[in-house]
Structures are given as C-alpha cells and as structure tokens.
Amino acid sequence: MKNLNIGLVGYGFMGRTHSNAFLQAPRYFDLPYRPVLKAVAARNKERVEKFAANWGYQSYETVWRKLIDRKDIDVIDIASPNDTHKEIAIAAAQAGKMVMCEKPLGRTADEATAMVAAVEAANVPNTVWYNYRRVPAVFLIKELLDEGKFGRVFHYRAQFLQDWTISQDLPQGGEGLWRLDVSVAGSGVTGDLLAHNIDTALWLNGAITEVSAMTETFIKERKHTLTGKVEPVGIDDASAVLCRFENGSLGMFEATRYARGHKALYTLEINGEKTSARWDLHDLHRLQYFDHRDEGRVRGWRSVHITDGDQPYMKHWWVPGLQIGYEHTFIHQFADFVEAAAKGKALPPTFRDGLATDFVTDAILKSAKTRQWETVGK
Ligand SMILES: NC(=O)c1ccc[n+]([C@@H]2O[C@H](COP(=O)([O-])OP(=O)(O)OC[C@H]3O[C@@H](n4cnc5c(N)ncnc54)[C@H](O)[C@@H]3O)[C@@H](O)[C@H]2O)c1
C-alpha cells in the first residue's frame, strides 16, 4: 500500500483533532493509502518538538515553508489561524501537494477565491474541515432530505452559542486569543461559529441568495496581548441573520460568544412539508425527528439514538447502542478525504464549497454595515 505523507501546520486545538484522525482512521476504515505523520510545523521549537514526540510525527519544522519544499510530503494540512490559510494553501497547491485547510477557508471571499484558483489550477485533492457535516446524525438528515422525506422545505434555523468572551478583562490577540483580533481572524463569530452553521445549511438546504443581518461588538476596547496597549476591538461579538434560500425557504441564524451558560451549543432545525428534524451538538448522537405521516394517535417527536450499523458511519464503530463523539467527525472526514484523494478528487466540503460559505459571511458582514438586504456573491 502507498504511503500518504502528511505535513501538519499548527499544533493547537485543531492540530490535535487532526493528528488523532490521522492515527485512528486507518484503524477503523479500510483506506487506500497508509497515512504517515511525516512532519509538523510551528514556530516554537521546544513545543513543536514535544508535540511531534507526543503524536508520533517523524520530524518537525519551525517554518511552514520548509514543509512545502520537502519532497517527502504529499499533503499539507493547515490547522493554523485564519490569516495564514491563504498563503500556505496557495504555496502547497503550487508545489503540487494535496491541501486540507481549516475553516473559514479565507478571511474573505477574495482570499478564498485565490485559494480555489490555486487548487483547481494545480488539480490537487482538497477539502475544508467543516467537520459537522460528518456527525452521523447530521449526515442522516442529508440522506433523508435527498430521499425526499421532508417534501418542500419551509424553514431552516441554526444557532452557535458560546459564552467565553463576556469578561472585559479578556485581552485580544496572540496565542489562544487570536480569534478576538480582527486582523488575524478576519471577523468575529460570523467567520468563526456562524460559518459552521452556514456550511451545513448550504449542504443540506442549497444556496442562500440574500441576507439581512445585524452584528454587535459588545466590548469595544481590549488590551492587545502583543502590543500591551488597549486597542479597539474589530470583531463582531454576535451575529443575527435572516436569509432566503434558492429553494424558497426562509433561514434564521444566530451566533454569539455572549450567551451565558452556553459553551458550544450548535443547534439546527429544518421544517419540511412532511417532516421536521432537529439536532443539537450537546446531544450529538441523537436526531429529533417528527413525521406527520405517522398514525395520529402516536404521532410525536422521536428521539432517535444514532448508533446502529445502518446509520451513517456507525458500522465502523462499536455495537448498536454505544455512541461516538466529537473527535470522530474529523476521523470520518479524513477517511473520506483519503478515499477521494486515491481517485484524484477533491472531497466536499471542497475549497469551492468553502468559498460559497465565505460569500455568505461576506454578505452578512456587509448587510450589518449597510443595514440593507444584500445579495450573496457567486
Ligand atoms: N473545524 C472546527 O470545528 C474548528 C474548531 C476550532 C478551530 N478551527 C480553525 O482551525 C484553525 C486553528 O484554530 P485552533 O483553535 O486550532 O487554534 P490554536 O490557537 O489552538 O492553534 C493554532 C496553531 O497555529 C500555530 N501557528 C500560528 N501561526 C503560525 C504560523 N505562522 N506558522 C505555523 N504555525 C502557526 C500556533 O502556534 C498554534 O499551534 C483556525 O482557522 C480555526 O478557525 C476549526
């Protein structure tokens, strides 16, 4: 079997979820290539060395460009902050390497457009880590929609709620807090949390044509970790969106880091003519499902435990009744990526899919500024 030599950039939160996926995927999926943890790159020598030893990487670099120059790397995996995605992805594609990139693809649709052009010109397999598509319960909603179980869809609503930036004392910028620095992150919750909601929505319910949004920055100044000075905050702390889908349905989205008590509450609901489905990240192995065609006397919301072998991805795991978790979404996406890569194909969500989400988030941020409905770019 041929090796698939991986070069990872960034050893933070996502560096860990991805490394776990590279190690676990071949144990549970019958993959056409053998993943090899060839090298990891990050700037701090001591820490990158420790990370490499912990996860079993054969080598490390302190400059990401060294990974691109190395002939023994087949795929570059970008798990570093948003301001690094474009440069690394384009360099990797131009060197003929496959590219996996964390979300959001670019900080703006302009950045993402250049990234799409690079991977498509080089014709290299690519994917964006919008991992929630591969929660078995969410994947099942997609299957049910494609089978026409919902009939016409009227409503799509989703939220992503957190509460970790409420304190005025929290600084912005630097390690761990780059999400609060607009120059690094590109935007606040719109490009970070809401982007997940949008990617899943586009996949399940099709294109969004126009949006009307409001955003708010509740805390206007924070000390910057790197300069030590109090500086204006440029990110959106909360984002609320109304939209229209191409299929005629209406969408409502909300993301915030100011919903006290909520840590990572991603919920989505679809209301169709015949059925409705609801999913919640805090109870991710369950699908709430209502079918109006059930016999009236016993009709109601079903809470389906997604653990059986005929439900998406579950045949790769334990016995019916035993559930899986967050890290498995990355294992599923990586396993699917390797399958696609062996055929020379990009894996949805591809860079082009990631661009579609960036077009929507750009329109949301524009609408919040203009206070007008805005058409989503293409
Ligand atoms: N798919 C998801 O659910 C999900 C969840 C969290 C984060 N993300 C995305 O993943 C990316 C990374 O986020 P994170 O939470 O892992 O961040 P993090 O801060 O935990 O880790 C970032 C890593 O990148 C490294 N880094 C920064 N600049 C670098 C450079 N120039 N060269 C090499 N390494 C560099 C840092 O040292 C660190 O190791 C972001 O784009 C973020 O939006 C996605």
Low-confidence stretches: none
Radius of gyration: 21 Å
Strand order of the largest sheet: 16-15-14-13-7-12-11-8-17
Give the fraction of residues assigned to helices.
Answer: 25-40%
Quaternary: single chain
| Global geometry | globular
Named once each, the bound ligands are:
nicotinamide-adenine-dinucleotide
Brief overview:
By secondary structure, this protein is an alpha/beta fold.
General description of the model:
Helix content is 34%, strand content 25%. With 378 residues, the protein is α/β, with parallel strands linked by helices. A nine-stranded mixed sheet has the order 16-15-14-13-7-12-11-8-17. A six-stranded parallel sheet has the order 3-2-1-4-5-6, sandwiched between helices. The chain has a two-stranded antiparallel sheet with strand order 9-10. Helix 1 (13-28) packs across helix 9 and helix 5 (109-122) packs antiparallel against helix 10. The chain is globular and about 65 Å long. The mean pLDDT is 98. The structure holds nicotinamide-adenine-dinucleotide (NAD). The site of nicotinamide-adenine-dinucleotide has 22 residues, from helix 1 and helix 4.
